[in-house]
Write a structure and sequence with these properties.
The chain is an alpha/beta fold. The chain has 8 helices and 10 strands. A 4-stranded mixed β-sheet has the order 5-9-10-6. A two-stranded parallel ribbon has the order 1-2. Strand 3 and strand 4 form a beta hairpin. Helix 1 packs parallel to helix 3 and helix 5 runs parallel beside helix 7. The protein is elongated and about 65 Å long. The protein binds 2-acetamido-2-deoxy-beta-D-glucopyranose (NAG) (2 copies). The site of one 2-acetamido-2-deoxy-beta-D-glucopyranose has 3 residues, from loops. One of its GO terms (cellular component) is extracellular region. It holds the Pfam family CAP. Keywords: Signal.
């Protein structure tokens, strides 16, 4: 698996209970997380808001059982259909994963697009492939929407992997929005002070237009001052930015950079959720 271990997939599980499959959240989670683990991606967690959303959507779809295309929403979606009785959570995920051999990670394209790969597909297979295309597209789109975001995610996860943390961070729009709106305040005076929020927060300042690499390096460079065994920082040094980066339980981040109003200084903010640096706890 290449460096992007922070592959993130917001799956709205539209469960079509044609004959009332009694899938439990744990079943869906287990099936998804096994599939993710098989390609080196950290686990998902269950979200009740998404489950409610899927449930409502399923109520609409079951009317005529027409799954032509995913509905337009801010969530990504995989939908399964079966004429052979209930779909278990494991089968549901298997249908999605059956298209995996057609997906080429390096080029991020699906063999379906290649005319040289004729496929005779039963309806169920084409559905499975459709899911995978959605899945694959989302893997790359929602893990981080652009190169800047991907770089933040990558550098954080590299630092985490270097100390054996397999759980990557993923980009989070809410955190990005928080960082962005707080950056609008800080850039006025260009003084970095922490916001009051329930997120973790790393701040950085420079008198030049620093890159994402510079920003994250400033934080990760504190590693040399942090002593894991005693869980302490060398005198007169800072370690908290580093420990936030490698805080195992912090799995989402969102960042923003702004030029200050004085025009020649820059600030950067990353917010984290759940927040790190809980007193008395080790980062990992
Ligand atoms: C990419 O993401 C960064 C950070 O979220 C944002 O500041 C920038 O505007 C985005 N660029 C594009 C082209 O969307
Ligand atoms: C800062 O540098 C980035 C590229 O790293 C560039 O996209 C951006 O426009 C620059 N911002 C300013 C205000 O110069």
């Amino acid at each position: 698996m290449p460096s992007t271990s922070a592959i993130f997939c917001l799956l709205a599980l539209a469960t079509i209970h044609l004959s009332s499959a009694h899938n439990k959240p744990e079943d869906y989670l287990k099936a998804h997380n096994e599939a993710r683990a098989s390609v080196g991606v950290g686990p998902m967690s269950w979200d009740h808001k998404l489950a409610d959303y899927s449930h409502k959507h399923a109520q609409k779809l079951k009317g005529n059982c027409n799954l032509k295309k995913p509905q337009v929403s801010k969530y990504s979606e995989t939908i399964a259909w079966s004429s052979q009785g209930e779909i278990t959570a494991a089968e549901f995920v298997k249908m999605c994963m059956d298209g995996k051999p057609l997906y080429d990670y390096n080029s991020n394209i699906c063999a379906l697009n290649a005319k040289s790969t004729p496929q005779v597909m039963s309806p169920i297979n084409s559905l499975a492939i459709f899911h995978l295309v959605v899945l694959a597209a989302r893997i790359h789109l929602s893990s981080a929407n652009n190169a800047t975001q991907q770089r933040y995610v990558h550098l954080h996860n590299e630092a985490r992997r270097n100390v054996g943390i397999g759980i990557g961070m993923t980009w989070d729009k809410t955190l990005e929005d928080h960082a962005h709106s707080y950056a609008q305040k800080l850039k006025v005076d260009c003084i970095i002070e922490h916001s009051v929020s329930h997120y973790g927060e790393n701040l950085a300042w420079a008198d030049y237009n620093f890159t994402v690499d510079h920003i994250v390096k400033m934080w990760v460079d504190e590693k040399q001052f942090y002593d894991y065994n005693s869980n302490t920082c060398a005198p007169n040094q800072m370690c908290g930015h580093y420990t936030q980066v490698v805080w195992r339980k912090s799995v989402r981040l969102g960042c923003a950079k702004e030029r200050c109003n004085n025009n020649h200084q820059f600030i950067a903010i990353c917010n984290y959720d759940p927040p790190g640096n809980a007193a008395g706890e080790r980062p990992f």
